[in-house]
């Protein structure tokens, strides 16, 4: 059995954490990358929630309050980014895609002592270079400020598979379908359908990480059939649900 060890949020190191482990809202004077080499994690800030499976890494700049929750038996890697380097990265919380090179560098920096003077500094420069690409917005789930939107998004968070139209939700929230549709676009930057799809994908990632089958996950997250679920999952995550589970068993992605 793997030994559970909780990684410190302020150091460069890793540790296995149990399913459901939660780090309450906090902030850092340095930047922070958190990577689930196995399992998955959710990072939540005032800008919304990002779910990061093993082909994503979450980035939180200095001073941003955030919380983490881990799903499945998670190999959590935490890398502090010195304040002087944070200006090289985007100035808001984000999630980035993790390719083979970035994965290996993150594992090296968080998995072993520095082998010779300056080695970690050179590896950290590679991390910064690899994160020069624009962040991946596909798994970002923004959270609303408008009370009417919050009322219906809270309902869907509690039951993402709920088969309900925007018009029906409008009657619950006391707003017209047209008003809610406009609010989704102006406040959250996406349609209601897109927001609910990402919410369901977040829940699907958790189910798959916990070993649920693709078919069961599709049904429990609101898809009418596995084919439509596989199509939506692949479009947002970048790989099929089956490949995602296979990567978990293999110890991580090989994109």
From TrEMBL:
Keyword terms: Transcription, Transcription regulation
InterPro entries for the chain: Homeodomain-like_sf, HTH_AraC, RmlC-like_jellyroll, RmlC_Cupin_sf
Superkingdom, natural source: Bacteria
Pfam families: HTH_18
SUPFAM superfamilies assigned to the protein according to its UniProt record, in alphabetical order: Homeodomain-like, RmlC-like cupins
Gene3D superfamilies per the UniProt record, alphabetical: Homeodomain-like (1.10.10.60), Jelly Rolls (2.60.120.10)
HTH araC/xylS-type domain residues: 150-247
Keyword Transcription carried by entry: yes
Protein name, entry field: Helix-turn-helix transcriptional regulator
Organism ancestry: Bacteria, Bacillati, Actinomycetota, Actinomycetes, Pseudonocardiales
């Amino acid at each position: 059995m793997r030994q559970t060890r909780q990684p410190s949020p302020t150091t460069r190191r890793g540790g296995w954490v149990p399913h459901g482990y939660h780090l309450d809202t906090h902030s850092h004077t340095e930047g922070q990358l958190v990577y689930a080499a196995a399992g998955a994690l959710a990072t939540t800030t005032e800008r919304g929630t990002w779910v990061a499976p093993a082909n994503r890494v979450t980035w939180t700049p200095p001073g941003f309050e955030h919380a983490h929750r881990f799903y499945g038996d998670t190999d959590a890697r935490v890398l502090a980014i010195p304040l002087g380097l944070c200006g090289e990265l985007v100035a808001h919380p984000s999630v980035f895609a993790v390719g083979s090179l970035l994965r290996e560098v993150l594992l090296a920096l968080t998995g072993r002592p520095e082998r010779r003077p300056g080695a970690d500094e050179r590896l950290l420069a590679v991390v910064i270079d690899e994160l020069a690409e624009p962040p991946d917005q596909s798994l970002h789930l923004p959270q609303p400020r408008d009370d009417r939107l919050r009322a219906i998004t809270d309902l869907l968070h509690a039951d993402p598979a709920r088969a309900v139209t925007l018009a029906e939700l409008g009657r619950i929230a006391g707003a017209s379908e047209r008003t809610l549709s406009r609010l989704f676009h102006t406040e959250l930057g996406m349609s209601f359908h897109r927001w609910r799809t990402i919410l369901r994908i977040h829940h699907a990632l958790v189910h798959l990480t916990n070993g649920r089958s693709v078919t069961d996950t599709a049904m429990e997250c609101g898809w009418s059939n596995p084919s439509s679920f596989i199509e939506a999952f692949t479009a947002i995550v970048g790989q099929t649900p089956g490949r995602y589970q296979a990567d978990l068993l293999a110890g991580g992605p090989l994109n």
